[in-house]
Amino acid sequence: MQRCIPDSARGLRHPQTIVLNQTTPHSNIWTLFQFFAIVESMNNQDITLAHVSVSEMDNNCYLLCIGKEALLIDAADNPQALLDLAAENNVSITAVLSTHSHWDHLRALPQILEQTGAKHFAPQPDAADINAPVDVLLTDSDVLPFAGHHFPVHILHGHTTGGAAIAVPIGENMHLFVGDSLFPGGIGKTENHQDFIQLLHDVSTKLFQKYPDDTVVHPGHGKSTTLGAERPHLEEWRARGW
């Protein structure tokens, strides 16, 4: 499956049993810490997902709702739309994750933080370029703690110095929130071939090799996809160089 990647980004309840299978191409080669963090999350309150697209750049903003709290992923623009989304789902935004430092994902960030008092999480490599104070710096293999859950963090280098992706169990599937590092049809925009190779490597080893085909991928722009839909095209992406 291939879909158009937006130029703005290229330039996108039931307990689950996890099997640590060492024999398949997408083996879940996780540390025990990450594994038990996922199991803990699955045994807590259900997680529901809400979404809104904002701005002329079709930025995706995601709301992970747990009880009466919500984690907002990317306060991209239109702060009132984000607050309305929370109100419609009867939750309060108590945490915000900025996936990376590009301006189009941060336009509503200062206002949202001021109005909600939310804790701000951001990837350590990109933090200096983000337009608001960061409360918690995320590094590779960290977990993001929220409302009794702990979501594994993967730092992906190449689209920016280092953006964050998090893995979240919702319903019977894993869901990856990846910012602009992975889209239907390819990885995110990079400035040079070295950055392209780095991003493709990180996406391959940290996402495709660790999570199964039915994992849902939620990008920073455009439509969602699955790892299974994109996996057959990895070598094609490598060969074309974008």
From TrEMBL:
<feature type="domain" description="Metallo-beta-lactamase">
    <location>
        <begin position="58"/>
        <end position="221"/>
    </location>
</feature>
<protein>
    <submittedName>
        <fullName>MBL fold metallo-hydrolase</fullName>
    </submittedName>
</protein>
<dbReference type="Pfam" id="PF00753">
    <property type="entry name" value="Lactamase_B"/>
</dbReference>
<dbReference type="InterPro" id="IPR036866">
    <property type="entry name" value="RibonucZ/Hydroxyglut_hydro"/>
</dbReference>
<dbReference type="InterPro" id="IPR001279">
    <property type="entry name" value="Metallo-B-lactamas"/>
</dbReference>
<dbReference type="InterPro" id="IPR051453">
    <property type="entry name" value="MBL_Glyoxalase_II"/>
</dbReference>
